[in-house]
Every structure is written in C-alpha cells, then in structure tokens.
Specification:
alpha+beta; Beta-lactamase; eight-stranded antiparallel beta sheet; three-stranded mixed beta sheet; 11 helices; 17 strands; 19% strand; globular
C-alpha cells in the first residue's frame, strides 16, 4: 500500500496534481484508500471529498439504459427516433459554404448502441473544430447549458462510421426517460443510487455535499494552478447523462463493484449477470477508439490512452483489448471526467480503482504520469 501512498503524495508535492484521492476495491470490499493534499483551502482531501465527476456520469447513463434492455423494454439496436421522434431532426454537417453550414440527412439510423459507444456521429467542440465553427455560426448552445435545445448538435459523420467523442449519452438518458416515464434523475436515484447505497452521488448538491465539495483549479501558462469555475448546470431543462453528476470516491467504487460482481452488491441486484456480460463486451462492431485531438488546450490535452494497442468501447466503458504491461489486464474497462476524475475496472484481476483530483487541463501529461505511477503501484501492491 505504501507505493500507492507514495505515488499520490509525490504527485501533490511536485504540483503535478493539486490533491488526490485514490481507492481500490475487489468484489469483497475496499482494498486501499488514500489521499494527499487539500481538496479546498484548509480542508484535507479524503473519502468524503465531493467531486464534479462530469463524464464519469456516462457509465451511469449506460447502466440506466441497460436496466431497460435487461427488462426487455428496448434493444441495443432500437433506433433512437423510434423512442424519441424529435431525434429525426438531427442532421449531418457536410461542410461549409463560406460560413454557412451545409447540412444533410444521415444515411444510417442511429441506434441506442451508437449512442452508447460514441459512434453516433456526435462530437464535442473540444475535440472537433468544425463543431466549434458550427456553434459560432449558428449560436448553438453548449451541452453544458442544460438547455433542451443544446441536445441538437449536428452529427459529424453518419452513425456507425467511426468513433467520435460527444453527447450520445445525453440522448441515451432522454431515451430512458421516454421509455420508463420517470425523469432520468429520479430513475437513477431509485434504480441505481439508492439500491447501491450511493448516498453521496447526486445531480444537485445538498448542504452536506456542498460543504465537502472540492475546489477546481486550472494550470495557467506559468505552470501554477489557479481557481477555475466549471460545474454541471443546476436545475437544467435536461439532466445530461454525459456530465451532470457529483460523487465521491467510495460511492463510485460501489457502482464499479456492482459491475465487478455481475450486477449485484450487498444483496441488491441492479442487472442480471447476463446483462453485465452483454454490457461489458466490445460493442464497436469492428470500429475502434481513435485518438482525440484537442482544439481547446486550456481545457484538455489530446488523448490516446494506450498508443499502439487496440482500444474499443463496451456499452458503458472504454475497453483495452490487450494487457498493458505492469498495469491493467486485457478486457479492462474505464473512463474519466474532464476535471481529471478517473477510474478503471479489471475483471481478469478482479479489481476496480479510482484516482481523482479536480484540475484542468484534462489528461495533461503531468496528470497522466501520476495516473500511470499510481496504477503500477496498485498492481505491484495487490
């Protein structure tokens, strides 16, 4: 365990991260818990630290959809427009005529599987300059506005053409709402958070969570961290399952342990074992993850998690198809939130882990070196 502590403490001492919380669990319970630094001035980081988890929300949204698939309400390949008729308004951006976007109808119907695997054609403006150009030309609101209208990003490719990281899971959450009838925040609370005992995971922070909310910082051009404002929208028109949650390290590990245990935790079954097996398989249908090249370096670095290895996507998580030496095994899964909250689960080794801070840019080199050192220490220690 000392290696994990050392990795976190060294990273804080070197100002590679402002603070860090790390936890590791197996099917039976917590194997390691450690923290270093202050989550906010005068407040030590720890298990009670509340994070803006942003895209760690996506796996929760995918599990919500998987619950309905498990119950036979929808299928992986149900067309999105069959559930949400307004989805038929989405068009593909086919280039620009001067500054005017040229739009066309998609040639392929997007399915729930396309939404969940980021092969539906949607891409965030942080990784595709044409999306930024489209938004500037049309005044289209960012998904972080929380507006219903913000869902109608253009597709950058036809569904099923390639990997492109974007707002698919926000639409997936809307599909869950339409099929189930409950708003997505109520669905997640009643079907996932309450059964799993995730008492510090929420779409809106209450007073107790606010008291433990960490400070977000961004690294400036001088290399130093300074406070930065970025948060999921409060009381939005639409709760985006791509980004809208707050949580803690122990809570998120309960969610990951449920997956590790085949859909059950402490006697509460969220998904059938078969559903978990189906959900965690490669759903890319021959496609693979493609390097994400930043268009907004202050917000995010470019991202290629394991260069030279095949990386795919299950219905809920990124998957590495080959073992990473000294680190996770083949078939491991993971993802992250833009403010550098990261997790992985390794079914072959039977563990799940988180390493969480609250800083920008996302996946900057100094953070990723910390992540690698921590992960290597996890496997060396366990």
């Amino acid at each position: 365990m000392s290696g994990m502590n050392e990795a976190l403490e060294r990273a804080v001492a070197q100002e590679d991260v402002p603070f860090a919380v790390g936890m590791v669990a197996d099917a039976g319970g917590i194997r390691y818990s450690g923290a270093a630094g202050e989550a906010a001035p005068g407040r030590a980081a720890g298990e009670d630290t509340v994070f803006r988890i942003f895209s760690m929300t996506k796996a929760v949204g995918s599990v919500a959809a998987m619950i309905l698939i498990d119950r036979g309400r929808v299928r992986f390949d149900t067309p999105v427009a069959d559930i949400l008729p307004e989805f038929a308004k989405v068009r593909v951006l086919d280039g620009f005529d001067g500054d005017t976007p040229v739009m066309r109808a998609p040639r392929v119907q997007a399915t729930l599987r396309h939404l969940a695997t980021h092969t539906c054609g949607f891409e965030y403006e942080f990784w595709n300059g044409d999306v930024t150009r489209y938004m500037e030309a049309t005044g289209h609101p960012s998904i972080l506005s929380g507006l219903k209208a913000s869902l109608f990003y253009p597709m950058m490719t036809d569904p099923g053409a390639r990997w492109g990281y974007g707002i698919g899971i926000d639409w997936l959450g809307q599909a869950v709402e339409a099929v189930d009838g409950r708003r997505i925040d109520a669905f997640c609370r009643e079907e996932i958070f309450e059964p799993l005992g995730m008492t510090t995971t929420a779409f809106e922070v209450d007073d107790a969570m606010t008291a433990n909310l960490c400070e977000l910082v961004a690294r400036g051009e001088d290399g130093a961290f300074a406070p930065f404002e970025l948060a999921p929208p409060s009381q939005p028109e639409v709760y985006g399952m791509g980004h809208n949650l707050y949580s803690t390290a122990p809570d998120y590990l309960r969610f990951l342990r449920m997956v590790l245990r085949g859909g059950e935790l402490d006697g509460e079954r969220i998904l059938s074992e078969q559903a978990v097996a189906d959900m965690t398989a490669d759903h890319m249908q021959g496609l693979a993850f493609e390097k994400m090249v930043t268009t907004a370096p202050a917000v995010t670095a470019s991202f290629d998690p394991f260069p030279g290895t095949r990386v795919t996507h299950s219905f809920a998580f990124m998957r590495n198809e080959e073992a990473i030496p000294g680190r996770r095994g083949a078939g491991s899964m993971g993802w992250a939130g833009v403010c550098n909250t990261h997790y992985w689960l390794d079914p072959a080794k039977g563990i799940a882990a988180v390493i969480m801070t609250q800083s920008l840019p996302f996946v900057e080199e100094r953070f990723m070196a910390t992540y690698a050192a921590y992960e290597k220490a996890v496997y060396a220690g366990l």
